[in-house]
Specification:
6 strands; binds magnesium ion; 13 helices; globular; binds adenosine-5'-triphosphate
């Protein structure tokens, strides 16, 4: 794609992710239908896949500039119930980018060392460097999700008892809001994604994991058991998004029952974030141009 085609593509894609962007506390989870595909139908699937492929190459170009410019960093945070498709989104959307400019971290159950620290410690260590795209597959947001749904996790965190009050979740939200404000003021651009899958679609995907031998490795009996807490999770997600969606660090609540649609929306949102930065290759100084000309001459004159 040439630079005009890239510009046109970015312009067209701009509006695509907007209906799913949340920037304040007015958000209600019931307003997002996991099955939603906007006005696209299954027949549009091939075009959506084609657009995603174009998106991937545009993203690669933007990432190259991000890397060369070495000023901004981008942090993409993914949260979802199991089998919502986090891994697939990360794999497909980032498939064209240079691995050197991309850092992916998966945050699983915390280690003993993690539990000996404040709740954001393990994630703070993984904030991307300038010029890079960092991806958090789960994040400190688990501290207001799984830890809220299962109080026994909170008990393992060795917090002084007088600090564990009914306000703890609001206090965590506040800590997160301040942290994200701090990061954005330091040139780290944040976009957060909740892949919103329905309980029904999750059941279907779990059954596929059981029935298709090559998917067996993905199935965990514990994931299926977590379905008993579905409503608690949805409440925790809604509260979390309401309390941590801001203009500088927006959430995208992405319908996740149709994988092709989820991937296209996430790609559009990431492209939108990068293209809002006015990225460009570093300008070459006069001295540098002279140096290049001299080097060229020397190379041509030599053997
Ligand atoms: P996969 O899709 O491969 O299963 P995953 O992200 O679900 O990927 P798991 O190996 O299942 O990976 O580990 C993630 C588990 O760790 C989740 O159940 C999650 O809730 C849990 N977890 C993450 N952060 C925390 C935390 N801070 N405290 C307790 N549990 C956590
Ligand atoms: Mg899992």
């Amino acid at each position: 794609m040439n630079s005009k085609e890239i510009k046109d593509f970015i312009k067209k894609g701009r509006k695509f992710a907007k209906p799913f962007r949340v920037t304040d506390d007015s958000f209600r989870l019931k307003d997002i239908d996991p099955e939603d595909t906007l006005d696209l139908t299954a027949e549009d699937k091939p075009q959506a896949k084609e657009a995603l492929a174009m998106g991937v190459s545009v993203l690669a170009e933007l990432q190259n500039m991000l890397y060369a410019q070495d000023q901004w960093a981008v942090l993409l945070i993914f949260q979802a119930m199991d089998a919502a498709g986090k891994d697939g989104v990360i794999k497909h959307v980032m498939s064209g980018v240079n691995p050197q400019g991309c850092q992916v971290y998966s945050f699983k159950a915390p280690s003993d060392e993690d539990l000996d620290h404040d709740f954001m410690w393990r994630c703070i260590k993984r904030v991307p460097e300038r010029g890079r795209i960092g991806i958090f597959n789960r994040s400190y947001y688990e501290e207001t999700l799984v830890v809220r749904v299962h109080r026994e996790f909170l008990e393992k965190q060795k917090l002084p008892p007088e600090l564990v009050t009914k306000d703890i979740w609001q206090e965590r939200f506040q800590g997160i809001r301040h942290f994200e404000r701090y990061l954005t003021r330091n040139g780290i651009v944040i976009r957060k994604f909740f892949l919103h899958v329905s309980k029904k679609e999750q059941k279907k995907r779990f059954l596929e994991r059981i029935e298709e031998p090559e998917k067996n490795w993905k199935f965990s009996a514990n994931d299926a058991k977590e379905r008993e807490h579905w409503d608690d999770y949805m409440e925790a997600y809604e509260d979390m998004i309401q309390n941590t969606a801001t203009k500088h660090a927006p959430w995208h609540v992405v319908p996740a029952d149709n994988k092709w649609f989820t991937r296209a929306i996430v790609a559009a949102a990431v492209i939108e974030a990068l293209s809002s930065l006015d990225l460009h290759y570093p300008k070459v100084s006069k001295e540098k141009l002279k140096e290049l000309a001299a080097a060229r001459k020397a190379l041509l004159a030599g053997k």
